[in-house]
């Protein structure tokens, strides 16, 4: 098994602008596989022996009651739990066939390959352009025209370009909440990730903003592997190919969304989706 490394496309990704048309070279989407993955915060167990395979170029929704471990799963895939006091884990998480917890893995490189967007949009207090340019500038040392092209490419992929192309120098915090959330997605996409983790990305948005995010997830699934944590069961049913239910850190059921929401195999799933608990 090889150590995680920047993919070849990460070094050249971004648009070629020959002829003035964008022809992006996206990274190859990767599957994500958790095997007997457990996590603890101090003595408190948060995840128990999770077995979960997310096929490449698909959307997996993770649902479950509050405190069931949904965010912990996402953060484990990005190694964002590393460094929290008392945290430890057992088992493995593979990105494609690469163990993300191998000692050779650089977590910063991992986080370029596995982008994450949080519930509350968190743009830097800088311009729209600078928010998106930050990653490729730092990680790929892009400058000038090449950098501008990557910014445009990422904003187009995030379905935001048309709304901000004349406001690139404006403070990102002047955008609407929904636009800020898509800006955060563009910021992750600028690193040309193979996997995108979305932690309740539309819970702070109005119905229109929510719909834009869902359309975006639907479109991005062709190029990326996406895991989305959501409290909105209709959203999971709409956007996710498969859905996983976590209860008390245990994976209760994982199935195609069309089946899980209509013919759940486990009585706890039925109780959860019919609102009898959680
Ligand atoms: N940094 C931390 N330190 C200690 N315990 C934590 C920490 N983060 C999470 N936990 C605990 O781990 C468990 C799972 O939390 P997690 O945030 O993953 O749940 P969740 O399903 O995402 O919840 P919610 O839907 O409310 O966001 C909870 O019991 C929580 O209190």
Describe the structure.
- Helix content is 34%, strand content 23%.
- A 6-stranded mixed beta sheet has the order 6-7-8-3-9-10, sandwiched between helices.
- Helix 7 runs parallel beside helix 8.
- The relative contact order is 0.18.
- The N terminus is likely disordered.
- It has 278 residues and is of the alpha/beta class.
- The site of adenosine-5'-triphosphate has 11 residues, from helix 2.
Summarize the structure.
34% of the residues lie in helices and 23% in strands. With 278 residues, the chain is of the alpha/beta class. It is globular.
List the helices and strands and how they pair.
Elements: H1 8-12, E1 32-41, E2 44-54, E3 59-63, H2 70-77, E4 87-95, E5 98-99, H3 107-113, E6 114-117, H4 128-139, H5 144-157, H6 161-164, H7 177-189, E7 195-199, H8 207-220, E8 225-229, H9 233-239, E9 242-247, E10 250-256, H10 257-260, H11 267-273
Helix pairs in contact: 4-5, 4-7, 5-7, 7-8
Pfam families: ABC_tran
GO molecular function: ATP binding; ATP hydrolysis activity; phosphate transmembrane transporter activity
Protein name: Phosphate ABC transporter ATP-binding protein
Give the beta-strand count.
10
Known CATH architecture of the domain at 32-122 and 194-274:
3-Layer(aba) Sandwich
CATH class of the domain at 32-122 and 194-274: Alpha Beta
What radius of gyration results from the CA coordinates?
Answer: 19 Å
- Largest sheet data: 6 strands, mixed
Ligands, ions, cofactors: adenosine-5'-triphosphate
Query: What name goes with the CATH superfamily of the domain at 32-122 and 194-274?
Result: P-loop containing nucleotide triphosphate hydrolases
Major sheet: arrangement of strands:
6-7-8-3-9-10
Overall shape: it is: globular
Strand content: 15-25%
Order of helices and strands: HEEEHEEHEHHHHEHEHEEHH
Structural class: alpha/beta
End-to-end Cα distance, whole Å, is 40 Å
CATH topology of the domain at 32-122 and 194-274: Rossmann fold
Protein name: Phosphate ABC transporter ATP-binding protein
EC number: 3.6.3.27
InterPro entries: AAA+_ATPase (IPR003593), ABC_transporter-like_ATP-bd (IPR003439), ABC_transporter-like_CS (IPR017871), P-loop_NTPase (IPR027417), PstB-like (IPR005670)
Region (Disordered): 1-25
